[in-house]
Amino acid sequence: MQSSANLNVMMKAARAAARSLVKDFREIENLQVSSKSAGDFVSRADIAAEKIIRDMLTEARPTYGWLGEESSEVAGEDPTRRWVVDPLDGTTNFLHGLPHFAVSIALEHRGKIVSGVVYDPAKDEMFVAEKGAGAWMNDSRIRVSDRRHMSESLYATGLPFSGRADLPDTLKDLAQLLPACAGVRRWGAAALDLAYVACGRYDGFWERNLKLWDIAAGLIIAREAGAIVEGVTPQTTPEETGDVLCANSTQFESLAKVIRRA
Question: Which domains does the chain have, with CATH numbers?
Answer without folding.
Answer: 5-142 (3.30.540.10), 150-261 (3.40.190.80)
